[in-house]
Amino acid sequence: MTQPLRIALAGLGTVGGGVIRLLDENGALIARRAGRPIEIVAVSARDRNKDRGVDISRFAWVDDTTALASRDVDVVVELVGGSDGPALTLARSALAAGKGFVTANKAMIAHHGLELAEAAEKAGAALKFEAAVAGGIPVIKGLREGAAANEISRVYGILNGTCNFILSKMEAEGRDFAEVLAEAQALGYAEADPTFDIDGIDAAHKLSILASIAFGTQPAFADVAASGIRHVLAADIAEAAALGYRVRLLGVADHGAGGLFQRVHPHLVPISHPLAHVTGATNAVVAEGNYVGRLLFQGAGAGDGPTASAVVADLIDIARGEFGPAFAMPSSALLAQGAADSGERRGRNYVRFAVADKVGVLAEIAAAMRDAGVSIESLIQRGASGDGSVLVAIVTHEAPERAVAQALERLRGSQSLTGQPLWMHILE
Ligand SMILES: NC(=O)C1=CN([C@@H]2O[C@H](COP(=O)(O)OP(=O)(O)OC[C@H]3O[C@@H](n4cnc5c(N)ncnc54)[C@H](OP(=O)(O)O)[C@@H]3O)[C@@H](O)[C@H]2O)C=CC1
Ligand SMILES: N[C@@H](CC=O)C(=O)O
Ligand code: NA
């Protein structure tokens, strides 16, 4: 057998620990598949003495994580996290030294992916990040290899395991948002800063990477319009169910007016759509290609085992010498596209208001919609909540987004509203 692929591993937390366990358990099979063993030789994290449930005494310990790139290794694996800081320093120095670089760090790739891809190409080194998008699902490989012959018109899906776990628990058990978040954190799904998950930022990181690979455009995280699930109430989930929908946080990217359209938002998904049946920390990505048709990738989007599976799959590719440009084409071929104007996009909408229980409130909402040219398909009003306010949920007929925004703007500051309205798009 040929020389092992020698690895330096930065980060020994949920995913780093998973990678060590996976290589311990499946190492012999992986060596046969890769044509050579994959061996961790050096590791680093913050705390050398932490009990990690795996034996790390057999590896060289490196105090300064950013110094891992100067070890005698073929590939540096970064599982620390953070868009900048030691992760970015390590990425730059590893690639500059001509070493392969594998990461699960979507924040860093969303912000600095283009620069790192250019550095990798210059050095002739591998830059791979399958674990960064939808965890264990081989969606990057699927798009950059399996669907490479297609023009992709739209890519969308459930990209955050924590949010999907929370929404499906809220739906199944009627439980409180905060309580379920704590459970997702305990299971190792949530980011170090869980606001990244619940405010849609993590999904936006992933969407910008996915869109770049799907459309051949430069990653443009700043152009992703993102909001999360912290304002979704159990009542919204119940109303959606009564209307034949489930609430899911979706990332959606397609070609829009004037550029690329990228959005992360809670959506109403028709119960007949496969994404409505994706529960727990599972992720699912739909890609629509002009020759292959609709592809659906589904699987575990978070957690130690699935994420380690994606990291090690990247290592196997490198061990085989099979790696191409990080974003599926040379970085010089990636197009710089601006953000599309969403105002003219047409669709049906769910808008929920918390209102004071008094005469004329419904008329005020209806008038704001009418004046903006938005036609109401259905309206549900539920009894008073704890604070005495009443929930009014409307579903609109198809309307341009600009018109719905106008109606909400007109209602802003109204004495009738007791809280911010929640606007969710309906997936068609
Ligand atoms: N958890 C998941 O399901 C998924 C995570 N990811 C990504 O994988 C990466 C790792 O996530 P995860 O394993 O969950 O994170 P953890 O918080 O579990 O682990 C992070 C590791 O990095 C080490 N670390 C943190 N800060 C520093 C630092 N400044 N210098 C050196 N080492 C540091 C920690 O050291 P110590 O242990 O000593 O504190 C720890 O070992 C992130 O980019 C995340 O977004 C991607 C997909 C899924
Ligand atoms: N925090 C992320 C982890 C995987 O990327 C998630 O919940 O999906
Ligand atoms: Na993946």
Automatic annotation (TrEMBL):
Molecular-function annotations in GO: homoserine dehydrogenase activity; NADP binding
Positions annotated to bind L-homoserine: 191
Catalytic residues (positions): 206 (proton donor)
EC number: 1.1.1.3
Single Gene Ontology BP annotation: threonine biosynthetic process
InterPro entries per UniProt: ACT-like_dom_sf, ACT_dom, Asp/hSer_DH_NAD-bd, HDH, HDH_cat, HDH_CS, NAD(P)-bd_dom_sf
Keyword match rRNA-binding: no
Annotated NADPH binding sites: 106
Keyword field: Amino-acid biosynthesis, Methionine biosynthesis, NADP, Oxidoreductase, Threonine biosynthesis
Cited CDD domains: ACT_HSDH-Hom
Entry protein name: Homoserine dehydrogenase
Species lineage: Bacteria, Pseudomonadati, Pseudomonadota, Alphaproteobacteria, Sphingomonadales
